[in-house]
Amino acid sequence: MIVLSCTKHRGLIPSLEYFGRKIYSDNLKTYKIVEKNVFAYATNHIEEGSIGYQSKYEKALISPMYTVFKTEENINDEFLFRVLKSNTYIQEYQKRMEGSIDRRGGLRWQEFSKIKVSVPSYEEQTAIALTLETADQQLKSYQNKLEALQLQKKGLMQQLLTGKIRVNVK
Q: What's the mean pLDDT in 101-121?
């Protein structure tokens, strides 16, 4: 079974893909199973936004340091994921962290579950999630176009600097 890690920016992704090497234990007996359509967060790193939604695999494994939870049917998980990754909620996690040393603190389920989330109707949640997904796709398209133009500029500048292309100035 694949082992996942939770990242600040991309949520749950295969650990090997994220780290480029195996960093998890050989003994996976204590690892938690995270089924499809379930949330998981890094109990000791959630204040950085390390929360993910597992929608890719039927079952995967995560470190026992993670907390796993599932929503009720009246919640659109894509909507909730975006809410829980927002700066507002990251600040809320920071306020609720327990522990005397910054990096060893944690946000246990007992405290996490007390966080209130205002949710509109399921239909509105779905519309909001779809709108944000469309905006993300458009933003990615613009980023890809920008990267292509920057690469083209780099190539043209190289040709100008090497003299392969000359500019006639009148």
A: 83
Mean pLDDT value across the chain: 89
Binned at pLDDT 50, 70 and 90, residue 19 comes out as: confident
The DSSP secondary structure of the chain, one letter per residue, reads --BEEEETTTEEEEHHHHHSS--S-S--TTPEEEETTEEEEETTTGGGT-EEEE-S-SEEEE-TTEEEE---TTS-HHHHHHHHTSHHHHHHHHHH-BSSSGGG-B--HHHHTT-------HHHHHHHHHHHHHHHHHHHHHHHHHHHHHHHHHHHHHHHHHTSS-----
Q: So what's the pLDDT on residue 101?
A: 47
Q: Could you identify the residue written with the tokens 């779905």? A: 126
Provide the whole-model pTM.
Answer: 0.77
